[in-house]
TrEMBL record:
<dbReference type="GO" id="GO:0035438">
    <property type="term" value="F:cyclic-di-GMP binding"/>
</dbReference>
<dbReference type="InterPro" id="IPR009875">
    <property type="entry name" value="PilZ_domain"/>
</dbReference>
<dbReference type="Pfam" id="PF07238">
    <property type="entry name" value="PilZ"/>
</dbReference>
<protein>
    <recommendedName>
        <fullName>PilZ domain-containing protein</fullName>
    </recommendedName>
</protein>
<feature type="domain" description="PilZ">
    <location>
        <begin position="23"/>
        <end position="115"/>
    </location>
</feature>
Amino acid sequence: MALSDSAISELRQQGHTLSIASRRDVRTVVACYARLELLPRKYGGICHGISHDLSKGGIKVRMFQKLRVDSRVLVQLCCSENVNPLTMSGAVVWTSLDAWNEQWLYGIAFADPDHGISQRFKEMNMPLVVNHNEC
């Protein structure tokens, strides 16, 4: 798992807690189709994967394509055919190779944490909550 200095600096400016052991937000296990579009759009590139878990501040995604730490992405999360996709922008803050499955795991921090994410998940009967005991 690798975090770049610029990603750490930007997340600190946004008030994120970077300690994995003391995350503010509880992660909800969510296995949904994830579509990632690299930003700015001039770079093109659309990647497809499966989400692992989700919180108000970010998401973990598994996919075959390799992305760089600091890559800016637009994430569309499709969990049901009956509900519009959940769309968030963010940046890759860590990567990890799952050599056994020949796939990459990515941690993506949202640019605007909880910008309607909790409400959308309530509509999908998948509530996200803050775990105040882990602050």
